Amino acid sequence: MNKKIIVLILLIVFVASPSSFAFGDVETYRVAGDIQFPPYEYLDTDGVYKGFNVDLLKAISLVTGMEFEFIPMKWEDAFRSIERGQADIIQGMKESEDRRTRFNFTDSLLLNSQSIFVRANYYSINNNSDLVGKTLAVMKEDIVYFELSRIKDINIIQYDTMEEAVYGMINGEVDAMVGNTLTVNYICKENHWIDQVKIVGQTLNEQKYSMAVSKDNPQLLRSLNEGLDEIQKNGMYDALYRKWFGTPIRNSKEETEFQIKMLLFGLAVLILILLVVQLINRKLKRIIEEKTREEKILVNELRNYDKLQFMDKIISSLAHEIRNPLTSVKIYTTQMKNKLDNEEFMLAASNDIPEEIDRIDSLIKEFMEFTSPRKPQIKVLNLREELENTIKFIKLQIKDIQVDMEVDKDIHILFDAGHFKQIVLNVLLNCKDALSFTNNPHIGVYGFESKDGVVLRFEDNGCGMTEEGLDYIFEPFYTTKDNGNGVGMFVVKKLVEENKGKIQAINNISGHGMSIILHLKRGVIHEN
To answer: pTM for the complete prediction?
Structure first.
């Protein structure tokens, strides 16, 4: 690391000097170069010959001891300087098949290219094919001239220097100019033209750029290659490259390609994200469907479990309701053999017995409908009639509780009859439990129409619930009772929702008891 720092310091001192250092009686090699080809080689306003190629040879001199004499001249003269015996080295030129027959080239200094330059606000030329019919500027003896001259309908104007060609293009003397990419970039940077110029089309004539020597001097070629290899290893080459080649001119083609690539990349990423999201959604959908299926199974199991818990209560009420018509039937049948000739008795029996049997049959049907879990079969129900029929099931259980009903006879709802019975039974039994230690227990059943449907409210004057209890009353297995299972109100909520209704639990404003409120869909009776 210390060695590299010392070498770089020596390089800076060396390239700052207008002349080369001498190493005793070392042979001096004459170097021909373009007088105006920045940043490769050029004379500045103070008459100092400088540039990338100049500094490169000075660096080689530093590491090899070779001495160089720089001879600036016009490019067309520099190109012929070795053949004329004026120079030993041409310090930089692009390689070609023709030139390889005339010169030996060192290892490549860099990969050189030429580009099509236009004004930044000029849009008539966007690619190479647009050059037809246009006027182009090139530098005299530039290799690209011979390639462009083969294209028909192109007017070519040659300028003595690259800077003059660029200036002619900026001033509108020509439609475009073709020249060395790095050279034009440097010229525009030095003259503050970077924002006025852009590159269009494909890169032209991409070739190796090397030093040239006579074919009769292989030893000089080896020495130059050794020096070039050394400065590349010790970092001098990289330092010089960064010094002379600044920010590149905007390449509209590359920018467009980059934007297209970024757009395609963005689309690819978006498609990938969409695919991943779709896969996740499908997986989540399968999970939700599975969980929903499991929940339905669980709900049905909980319903059955809930029914088993209070089935004994319902059966006892049902038995009480069946006992009355059975008693009537028994009375008639036991007296019938003695009153066969009693026409009035037989007429009454023929009327009453079928009615009592129908009453028993109706109770059994309602019980079977209640105990058969199934999907809701929604139909129009008379609210008051359904409430009265359902309350009969648990008349025995709530015989010590005052039940008041305020429901208009003309209110109808859309609901499954079996589900409605189960809901009412669960809610009333829940109210009964809440009234266990209440004096003068009371349950109010209120039904009325609202703008959104029908509201059914069950209100008791029991102990009410805490706010936490109200939040969890419809959760499975939540209970405040010592012998409760926490299933009843969960089942109620599920049945209400299956019938497109809503349910809520609140403490009464009076501070005594609570209410269960159902919001149901209104049913309409169509008269013929």
So the answer is: 0.40
